Amino acid sequence: MNVEDLPIPGVLKEFLVSKRGIRTLYPPQEEAVRAGLLNGENLLMVSATASGKTLMAEVAAVNNVLTNDKKTIITVPLKALAFEKLNDFKAYGELGIRVAASTGDYNSEDRWLNSYDVVITTYEKLDSLLRLKPSWIWDVGQLIIDEIHYVNDEERGPIIESIVAKLRMLNLKPQLIGLSATIGNPEELAKWLNARLVKSDWRPVNLREGVYYRGVVTFVNDGERRVGGQGDPLINLTMDTLNEGGQVLVFSSSRQGAVRIARKLAEYICSSPVRYIDPEEAGKLAEDVREASSSRILADELTNLIKCGVSFHHAGLELEVRRIIEDGFRKGVLKALASTTTLAAGVNLPARRVIINEYRRYEPGFGFIEIPVMEYKQMAGRAGRPGLDPYGEAIVVASSKDEVDYIIDKYIKSPPEYVRSNFMNTTSLKFHILSAIASQYAETLDDLVRFVSGTFAGSQGMFSSIQVNSIKRMISRIVDELVDYGFIVKSGDKFEATEVGSVVNRVYLDPDTAHIFILGLGKLGAGIDLDAYSLMLIVKSPKVPKVKVKRGELDELAQRAASMWGSIPLKPCEEDELLNYPEDYEDFLSEFKTAMALLDWINENSEDQIMKLYDVQPGDLRVLSDQAEWLVSALQELARTLKLGGDVVNGLRALKYRVRYGVRGELLELVVNLEGVGRVRARALFNAGYRTIEDLAKANLSELTRVHGIGERVASSILEQARQLVNEGKVVKFTEAAISGQGKGARGGLLDHIL
Question: Is residue 293 a contact partner of residue 621, using CB atoms and an 8 Å limit?
Fold first, then answer.
């Protein structure tokens, strides 16, 4: 099928042909068009990586805007994917398509999105928007769910289900488009979505899959090939590809493994007499990474590797650093990339050869477990660059002859696992039932049953006449728990959220965490260090990634916890029992260590200091601070609703910004008011005597440029912003009491009632 034959506006056809160079469709794309993709039909498209799903989603979205004058929402599992798609869609700006991404601030309706045609969100953000029901949501004519196999995920899966169920409760009927490369039971998922199924194994580049053992690759249906001798498998496989002009992507089960692999490959490539890289281009890329990295330690390591045409990639790296590395690999500056499975989750980064170094990974509490077939398929699908490679190869490294046949049968010849609903687990059900009631999707037990029946769980045979009564009893028990928490009230056969329950729903807290937060606020007494207390309270949320505790740290951490005993909420034991290894001892110390990392962050310890002390890398620290900012903001809303003293509410407001920017309270006025002034520049300005926005508004350019780290361009921006803020009276201020971090612990009657 030719682009000219598509039922889309002429300007879009012209754009695809002249700007994108696309004249004909791939077979799966044509099948999607014939199934009604561009005519409003619900569609589930399950096809191989690089088979054109993303392009068809873009065309469908732009067509929806131009033809139907309706909004499109594209929802994805990860922030990194949201911003990648935002960059992809910017090209359509010349057609008048306005695109925006929204991935945070769960307590906001984002009314500004009313001005945009295509809105890109994470699953969580979209679910939070559907709780708040902004007016623009009624203008949505299309919902594209990318990586829809995440419905199988314990955390994100129920959120996808909740999104679809809420749309059905609102009687909104946008076109639903689901995209995935790996689903074992797509027919079931298509039935739930009331969608037509397009399923295809076609790939633009042929994929050869095999297993490497002792210098030989055994390909499925394609014989054997000798690659290297008895040396290191990764070096043999990598150099074989580089010698043929290809690139290599190596997947490791751990971050440490990815770093070790990158070091080994870089050393070999740099010592080789054959020149594989462009030193000038590699040097430029290395400098870009150095400039973007907040960690000197990681920047030094990456710089040395990149100069050899190699890098590693994992979630411990900052998002911008990862983007630069990805771009360097796409452009061919990097020849080999060692990564954890972060790159298997939708990021568009193909390579001639994909090497899967281990098919087992370590899971705490379980030991080494085999990866799912779905995960293998996601990694293998990265092999083969369309337009660059004549073929792609996915090779698993085996450690014994017996493993060769096992890996072929287990992974290469097997279909991906079936996706299953996780919606009916108690934690998920509690979270989404409160949401359904508080956001007025449901007010009776029958409404709640109808809401749950709209989920994937409801379509998987869970609502037979026999089971409905059992499900009603389960929902009733959860409603009773929410009543006990003070989040729901019953009036006859109707349910209604309380003021506190509405706030819990609005700030996107799960009810159990909200209950813990309220208990903690109830124990907040006079003279307590509010900052430390609050951080140790919010890390109790399961959403906060906990810092691992090493065996040798147990006693030292316990002693530090004892020294801060007065600032610890919901204490796990008596103080004199702390060093006697009480129940849940390590869990408590893991929470404590996580809170201490955050405390060091807001006290302006550097990223490298935090990495050395806590083994929290910059990317992890950003995730940790993002989650902490959200949860402190939620804690602030609860404190306000429960009518705690103004000193507590204002102190939590200040703490929220301190967590965001990683600063002491004295720098808040500078970092909150000024764009382009982070923690390092703000400290330099403060130490130079510029402590308020008014101080800066009175300064001159030559004075500011003498401050360390403040160049002329930045100084000009600071002066312009400061003077405008002062003239318009818009300077955001923080009181001394708010930034001191000392809570008086005043309690309102509502809190006493809840407790």
Answer: no
Pairwise CA distance, residues 500 & 390, whole Å: 60
Residues 380, 279, single domain; the answer is yes
- Could you tell me the CA-to-CA distances from 272 to 269, 388, 712 in Å, in that order? 5, 25, 45
**In a shared domain, residues 270 and 388:** yes
For 750, the token pair is 């509502």
Would you say residue 12 lies in a domain?
A: no
* CB burial readout 535-544, b (16+ within 10 A) else e: bbbbbbbebb
The verdict on 674 and 543 lying in the same domain is: no
pLDDT in tens, 124-166: 999 999 999 999 999 999 999 999 999 999 999 999 999 999 9
Residue in 252, 217, 403 with CA at minimum distance from that of residue 337: 252
Q: How confident is the model at residue 747 (pLDDT cuts 50, 70, 90)?
A: very low
Residue 699 lies in a domain: yes
Q: What is the pLDDT of residues 55-67, one digit of tens each?
A: 999 999 999 999 9
**What confidence category does residue 247 fall into, taking pLDDT thresholds of 50, 70 and 90?**
very high
CA dihedral 425, 539, 371, 264 (to 10 degrees): 170
423 pLDDT band, cuts 50/70/90, is: very high
For residue 17, give both structure tokens: 């042909």
Q: What is the pLDDT of residue 346?
A: 59
Alpha-helical segments (H) within 643-678: 646-661, 668-673
Report pLDDT for 743.
46
Q: Which backbone phi and psi does 567 adopt, to 5 degrees?
A: -100, 10
Residue 357's domain comprises 245-412
CATH assignment of the domain containing 437: 1.10.10.10
Label residue 690 left, alpha or beta by phi (over 0 means left) and psi (-120 to 50 means alpha). beta
User: For the segment 508-547, what is each residue's pLDDT rounded down to a tens digit?
Assistant: 999 999 999 999 999 988 788 999 999 999 999 999 999 9
Residues 281 and 407 placed together within one structural domain of the fold: yes
Q: Which amino acid is at 645?
A: G
Whether residues 515 and 539 share a domain: the answer is: yes
CA distances from 530 to 261, 651, 739 (A): 44, 7, 10
Single out the residue in 498, 523, 556 at which a domain terminates. 498
b/e 259-280 (16+ beta carbons within 10 angstroms → b): bbbbbbbbebbeeeeeebbeee
In a domain, 13, yes or no: no
Give Cβ neighbours of residue 230 (< 8 Å, ≥ 6 apart).
214, 215
Residue 746 has pLDDT above 60, yes or no: no
pLDDT digits (tens, 9 = 90+) for 373-397: 999 999 999 999 888 889 999 999 9
Domain count within the chain: 5
CA proximity to 600, closest of 537, 656, 663, 546: 663
User: How far is the CA of 444 from the CAs of 5, 196, 281, 491, 586, in angstroms?
Assistant: 50, 33, 64, 10, 42
Q: Are residues 54 and 194 in the same domain?
A: yes
Q: What is the separation of C-alpha 473 from the centre of its chain, rounded to a whole number of angstroms?
A: 35
pLDDT at 755: 53
Task: Please tell me the distance from the alpha carbon of residue 558 to that of residue 575, in angstroms, as a whole number.
Answer: 10
> Are 727 and 612 contained in the same domain?
no
CATH of the domain at 381: 3.40.50.300
Looking at residue 704, which CATH number applies to its domain? 1.10.150.20
Please measure the distance between the N-terminal and C-terminal CA atoms of the chain and give it in whole angstroms.
66
pLDDT at 683 over 70: yes
User: In 439-553, which residue ranges form alpha helices assigned H by DSSP?
Assistant: 445-453, 456-459, 465-484, 499-506, 511-522, 530-538
pTM, two decimals, is 0.92
The answer to whether position 325 is within a domain reads: yes
Q: Are 681 and 710 in contact (CB under 8 A)?
A: yes
DSSP for 691-750, written as a single string:
-SHHHHHT--HHHHTTSTT--HHHHHHHHHHHHHHHHHT------HHHHHTEE-----HH
pLDDT bucket at 748, cuts 50 / 70 / 90: very low
Which of 380, 412, 444 terminates a domain? The answer is 412
User: Tell me, what CATH number does 650's domain have?
Assistant: 1.10.3380.30
**Same domain as 340, residue 269:** yes
